């Protein structure tokens, strides 16, 4: 009798066992407000907070793997991580059915940024030959023809914050930045020293991609991300770090699983 009761208790305890961790990738080239990395682990930021909240709502602990951006896809392919966020299908055009995409969660807006305000939008094709601040390993499709012709040359830094620091210090006249990082950077400066967006180079809807593995709560993750977006939680997190909630909406071509 006692052994039967112990067996029953063991089954019950196993039923309440903690879910396995959800393993998220963190690109080491990200900077605030996307993520703050300290001693090899993320501690705060838009993507950190969103991933941590997602894992909590799914009922799994979050585990973060900080990787070089070029290694993220290989880590996914080798099942070292489960979820990659802040990615676009156009960036990963050859994904197989081993992966499932979330709804679009953010809009990444790439900007041409200058220390000086401009009365009109800058047309990159009309710029004289000069270096432009860029992030190492990042692709800039709208500027690539100008890089190929050597009209513009890349001046690479390790992350987006370093790019803007070099622009502010006068290392070059223009740099490329996403809207979030520019807003975050300008919050630390008085109005007369802030950097200025002088052209919109590209807008891209981005979301999360998860490995289609039976061992993972794939549908729960997708439904949770949908709920977080529709209820405004993700936009609230963005507003917390950038000073304002997004005014644009990522396209929502999606059917709930």
Automatic annotation (TrEMBL):
<feature type="signal peptide">
    <location>
        <begin position="1"/>
        <end position="17"/>
    </location>
</feature>
<protein>
    <submittedName>
        <fullName>Amino acid ABC transporter substrate-binding protein</fullName>
    </submittedName>
</protein>
<comment type="similarity">
    <text>Belongs to the bacterial solute-binding protein 3 family.</text>
</comment>
<keyword id="KW-0732">Signal</keyword>
